[in-house]
């Protein structure tokens, strides 16, 4: 089947409008990068903390941004669909180029989340963001007072099973303690004690990734070198297979398209 009967298009005759548009976009790209003081590298290349948080309902992005703004330049991105439903990625850059600042950033982020969305002054332990060890420590004496006899190994196994069950079946985020009814060893006495000593916050910290400034600098250098090696290989292959001028044109086209993309992203990125 022939879709186009007339295949004689005068592409070169329409070259000047496209050349002018290309030059305008290229200049805009250079200008936007220059005005921002250079390329805006991500946390992987600059260093910082990236925390993935799952919420029980649609995450309030503006509220999160407002709460985290005291940490400086913070990025908040939500994920939609699949297992990542109601998850957000919160990224903070290092305030300075010191490795010890990483743990401080993480602690500050966790404190802000607890203050904004949890019940830090309730006197109870947040089950959704508690480790198995902290659960065991919190429940040991209350269980004994309520007449639930558990040895220390039994208590450790119980809290590990509860934590593993919540992580496996509910992505670590419970909305009702009754969801733990199927955990091996669970009984009414343990359930009542758990409800007395713990509460369920509307979020769960899924994971935290931290990149130090030295590692970020190494990744940035390797990424630049890998890109240059790839362009050089492409230039060498096309020059060998066809002509060197075609290879040079392909490399220039790659720089051209990338520069325009980065420039437009810089212009419209908040």
Task: Kindly describe this structure.
The protein is α+β, with helices and mostly antiparallel strands and 270 residues long. It folds into 2 domains: 15-41 and 216-268, no CATH class; 48-211, no CATH class. Helices cover 55% and strands 13% of the residues. It has 9 helices and 6 strands, in the order ααβαββαβαααββαα. The strands form 2 sheets. It has a 4-stranded antiparallel sheet. Strands 4-5 form a two-stranded parallel ribbon. Strand 2 and strand 3 (87-93) form a beta hairpin. The radius of gyration is 27 Å and the shape is elongated. The two termini are 48 Å apart.
Total individual domains: 2
Discrete helix count:
9
| Residues in helices, as a percent range | 40-55%
Unreliable runs? none
Question: What separation lies between the terminal Cα atoms?
Answer: 48 Å
According to DSSP, the number of beta strands is 6
Spatial shape: elongated
Structural class: alpha+beta
Give the topology string: H per helix, E per strand.
HHEHEEHEHHHEEHH
Mean pLDDT: 83
- Radius of gyration, in Å, reads 27 Å
**Biggest beta sheet attributes:** 4 strands, antiparallel
Strand order of the largest sheet: 2-3-1-6
User: In percent terms, what proportion of residues is strand?
Assistant: 5-15%
What's the layout of helices and strands?
Layout (H helix, E strand, L loop, with lengths): L14 H21 L7 H4 L1 E8 L5 H8 L5 E6 L7 E7 L6 H18 L7 E2 L5 H14 L6 H19 L17 H10 E2 L3 E9 L1 H29 L2 H25 L2
Parallel strand pairs: 4-5
Antiparallel strand pairs: 1-3, 1-6, 2-3
């Amino acid at each position: 089947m022939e879709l186009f009967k007339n295949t004689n298009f005068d592409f070169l005759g329409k070259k000047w409008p496209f050349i002018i548009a290309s030059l305008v976009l290229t200049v805009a790209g250079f200008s936007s990068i220059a005005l921002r003081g250079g390329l805006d590298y991500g946390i992987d290349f600059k260093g910082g903390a990236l925390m993935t948080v799952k919420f029980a309902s649609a995450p309030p992005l503006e509220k999160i941004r407002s709460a985290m703004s005291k940490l400086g330049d913070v990025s908040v991105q939500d994920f939609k669909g699949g297992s990542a439903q109601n998850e957000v990625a919160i990224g903070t850059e290092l305030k300075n180029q010191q490795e010890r600042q990483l743990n401080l950033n993480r602690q500050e982020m966790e404190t802000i989340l607890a203050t904004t969305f949890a019940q830090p002054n309730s006197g109870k332990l947040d089950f959704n963001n508690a480790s198995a060890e902290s659960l065991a420590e919190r429940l040991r004496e209350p269980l004994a007072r309520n007449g639930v006899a558990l040895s220390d190994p039994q208590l450790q196994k119980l809290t590990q099973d509860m934590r593993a069950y919540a992580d496996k079946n509910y992505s670590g985020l419970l909305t009702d303690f009754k969801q733990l009814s199927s955990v091996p060893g669970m009984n009414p006495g343990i359930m009542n004690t758990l409800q007395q000593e713990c509460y369920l916050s509307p979020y769960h910290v899924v994971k935290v990734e931290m990149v130090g400034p030295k590692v970020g600098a190494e990744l940035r250098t390797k990424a630049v070198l890998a890109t240059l090696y790839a362009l050089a290989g492409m230039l060498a292959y096309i020059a060998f297979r066809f002509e060197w001028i075609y290879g040079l044109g392909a490399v220039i086209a790659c720089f051209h398209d990338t520069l325009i993309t980065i420039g437009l992203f810089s212009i419209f990125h908040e």
